[in-house]
Amino acid sequence: MRYLLGLIIGAATLWLLLSGVYKPIVLGLGGFSVLFCAYVCHRMGIVDRESVPLHLLARVPLYALWLGGEIAKSNWDVAKRIVLPGRRISPTIVRLRAHQSSELGQAVFANSITLTPGTVTVALRSGDAIVHAITADNATDMEGGDMDQRVRRLERPFGAPARREASQ
């Protein structure tokens, strides 16, 4: 029941932020559409911990700030490579092990890599992310596993001890 309520609150909040129209008729139609979608999702049996990740809400802002910093640093590096002469690229493809415990965690990991300029997740299969990087340095940084560890921390339940896994 709490996931259904979380879905309704989340969808209504998103709808209000994106619509920008607060007339009574539009609010009524928006409320109806949110409730109808929640009803359909509930009937389909897809309202659960994975589809409505309430457990991530407290950690997402810190992760978003960290990811924003990584995006800014990578953007600056790519811009320098474009503008300054002599800055070479060395395109590389690497296979990274995604140690996340859920498909949602693996998707966040892969999308975080893709959002970072200079890197693109080409494929995500059975826990392995195939990543294209514009430089070997970018690939080496990713193999260090900082992003992997941060996404694992993001998806970890509150109060659970941190797991240590060796990078492969």
TrEMBL record:
The source's superkingdom equals Bacteria
Q: Which Pfam families does UniProt cross-reference here?
A: MNHE
Q: Name one GO molecular function term.
A: monoatomic cation transmembrane transporter activity
Whether Glycoprotein counts among this entry's keywords is: no
Q: How does it sit in the membrane?
A: Multi-pass membrane protein
Main subcellular localisation: membrane
A Gene Ontology CC term for this entry? plasma membrane
Query: What keywords are assigned to this protein?
Result: Cell membrane, Membrane, Transmembrane, Transmembrane helix
Signal peptide span: none
Where does it localize?
Cell membrane
What protein family is recorded?
A: Belongs to the CPA3 antiporters (TC 2.A.63) subunit E family.
Classification via PANTHER family: NA(+)/H(+) ANTIPORTER SUBUNIT E1, NA(+)_H(+) ANTIPORTER SUBUNIT E1
Task: Write the protein's name.
Answer: Cation antiporter protein
- What lineage does the source organism belong to? Bacteria, Pseudomonadati, Pseudomonadota, Gammaproteobacteria, Salinisphaerales
